[in-house]
Amino acid sequence: MAKVSTSKTFDVVIVGAGIIGLSVARQFLLGSNVSIAIIDSAEPCAGATGAGQGYIWRIHKDPESEKWALALRSQRLWEMLVESVMQQGKDPLIALGWKKTGSLLVGRTSEESDMLKKRLEKLSEAGVEALLLSNNELLLKESALGLGHEGSAAFLPDDFQIDARGTATFIQQFQAEGRYEEFFNEPVTNLIRSSSGEVEAVQTSKSIISCRKAVVVAAGCWSGSLTHNLVKNCNIELDLPIKPRKGHLLVIKNFKGFVLNHGLMELGYINHQSASTDQTLATDPQDISVSMAATMDMSGNLLLGSSRQFAGFQNEIDESIVNRMWERALEFFPLLRCHSLQDLRKDCEVRVGLRPYMASGKPAIGPVSGLPKLFLACGHEGEGLSLVSQPTNPIIFSIYSFMGSFITSLGTTLGTAEMIGDMVLEIH
């Protein structure tokens, strides 16, 4: 092991610099006077955050799920952040890549149209008014779509998207008056505990970083293996079954002659998103789901997804999957047939990310039983942006009951960053 060269102390140490970790840091810095260290084995947004399309949607979410209230709260806080940016005289499109595109969940058959109607009924019962568009109505909004006469879509005009990488850069501007420090490209190697069992410090490849109040693990799909390695000598049993689920995103830069006005997703995306993992899926990288998701970002780039695959922690580009994603997009957008993916490849970027998958479909948020001062904020597969919550002003909520060794029931109107901030500050 490399010689430890630095020893520093902070109130809270956060492991992971994706959108969850950065937002938790921002929550503490805006809502309290605590000091923060944030650690990452690479750079900010090197994982799933930097490889996503930036959707902050409700149209594809289930109002009956335990994540629904959290998603609504998070969406509202993103809106409040946008309002705050505008009040500062800044353009949220430039600062955050924010676009109020609305969301379109599209179907191509009468059966899928019936499914969309049922989804709209559920949304309406939950107080969210979305519209069912016929194929003709849909073509007025998105002329590039070709769904056939049975085509239809559920439309939620208030949904929006952001640029995840740009937003991460923005929220790093904490203005924390010396209360914040970054330790990037420093893999965590160990937890240091006191004689009473409390977590005292995090050891990295270069530093020992002590904590007064808490260590928060927000390392995405690496949180499970990282936490298990950290507690293996602590006589603590921890069941944190996070698996990496690999995804590709095709970015066609400055794409001319093709316009999308909204964010779009095929109805089948929902089934692929919620597909359960078993031993076969978890070990067979050939079991791949591909569904259409498309939007255009602030720079006019066409973003095409998406794929889902259990392939361990390898994140190499698979050209066969990229080709399948392109072919899937052609089924929905006939105009793309005028272009060859091979010809476009010189202007393409392929992003690969590993989503932190939890079979329960619920993230792990809360303290680890038996390890005082250790907290988890992970397992938000593909939903880190829409479940994270960005504070605009200090918002402190009363603490709620913990369930098991960590929270997986989210029937509350707190966002992840608020929840962690609330728990740590209430306990300490």
Counting H and I runs of at least 4 residues, what is the number of helices? 13
The CATH homology group name of the largest domain = FAD/NAD(P)-binding domain
- Subunit arrangement of the protein: single chain
Q: Which range does the strand content fall in?
A: 25-35%
Count the domains: 2
Give the tally of β-strands: 18
Biggest sheet overview: 8 strands, mixed
Coarse shape: globular
CATH fold name of the largest domain, please? FAD/NAD(P)-binding domain
CATH class of the largest domain: Alpha Beta
Helical amount: 25-40%
Structural class: alpha/beta
What is the alpha-carbon Rg in Å?
A: 22 Å
The first-to-last residue Cα distance is 33 Å
Average predicted confidence as pLDDT: 84
What is the CATH-assigned architecture of the largest domain?
Answer: 3-Layer(bba) Sandwich
Which key terms come to mind for this protein?
alpha/beta; 428 residues; FAD/NAD(P)-binding domain; 13 helices; 2 domains; 18 strands; 29% helix; 8-stranded mixed sheet; globular; D-Amino Acid Oxidase, Chain A, domain 2
